[in-house]
Amino acid sequence: QVIVHDVNELTEKLFPIVEAMQKHFSAGSGTYYSDSIFFLSVAMHRIMPKEITQIIQVDLDLKYKTNIRDLFDEFDNFPEGAVIGIAREMQPVYRHTFWQYRRENPQTKVGEPPPDGLPGFNSGVLLLNLEAMRQSKLYNQLLEPTMVQKLTEKYHFKGHLGDQDFFTMVGMEHPELFYVLDCTWNRQLCTWWKDHGYSDVFDQYFQCDGEVKIYHGNCNTPIPED
Questions:
Q1: Whether pLDDT at 1 is above 80
Q2: Are the CB atoms for 121 and 175 separated by under 8 Å?
Q3: 118: Cβ–Cβ under 8 A, 6 or more apart, which residues?
Q4: What average pLDDT does the chain have?
Q5: 217 by DSSP, 3-state: which?
Q6: Which of 136, 133, 110 is nearest to 121 (CA)?
Q7: How many separate domains does the chain show?
Q8: Which residues fall within 8 angstroms of residue 69, CB to CB, at 6 or more apart?
Q9: In-domain check, residue 113
Q10: Domain-embedded: residue 223
């Protein structure tokens, strides 16, 4: 069954919820009404009908090497308290974004590569446990403008990648809200940061062992042919 949602109607519902975070995580200098659609996943639990309990949200620049149904099984692996399944970011973009916080906190794991670091998240493949998102007092508190402001100030954070930035920043503070998907479920191919100052550490972020289930051709990167 396919249900088509009107983007303007969704934006109307979303805007009041995400308006406060847009100025921190949008490419533009202000809060653009249309930008709020880039924060759809953040508040999906507030605008979808209550009978919808789980949703997989994916980018368009993906290539599937396995049945998407297998991805739904990953919901069963969520630990207690986790509300969202998401893969790590595979470039040092957040090593860059958190530069000031990292300079002030030289021992931090923030922005460090896996397996021990916190490289941030990539929102190309998202498992949203809507029921858990609705029930989580902590998650809903983090959507409040005062909490968003508090965290952006703590981490000196200014991003431009919408929901991905929000999840990344929240994940630095509350990793327990996230189930980390294996990189093979979101094998990102973009190598932009390799040529922009991070060639020495790039491979630590970009490495992904295992058989790829979903390729993600982010930043217009060609996806391998079969």
A1: yes
A2: no
A3: 109, 110, 111, 112, 171, 172, 175
A4: 95
A5: coil
A6: 110
A7: 1
A8: none
A9: yes
A10: no
Q: Give the pair of three-digit tokens for residue 183.
A: 């990189």
Q: What is the pTM of this model?
A: 0.95
Q: Is 73 exposed, middle or buried (0-12, 13-18, 19+ CB in 10 A)?
A: exposed
210: region left, alpha or beta (phi > 0 left; psi from -120 to 50 alpha): left
62 part of a folded domain? yes
Q: How many CA atoms lie within 13 A of 137 on its CB side?
A: 0
Q: Is residue 226 part of a domain?
A: no
Give the pLDDT mean for 161-187.
Answer: 97
In the structure encoding, which two tokens stand for residue 200, read together? 């020495």
**pLDDT score of 30:** 59
- Residue 67, φ and ψ in degrees, nearest 5: -75, 125
Structural domain boundaries, residue 91: 7-216
Rounded-to-integer distance, Cα 105 and Cα 7, Å: 42
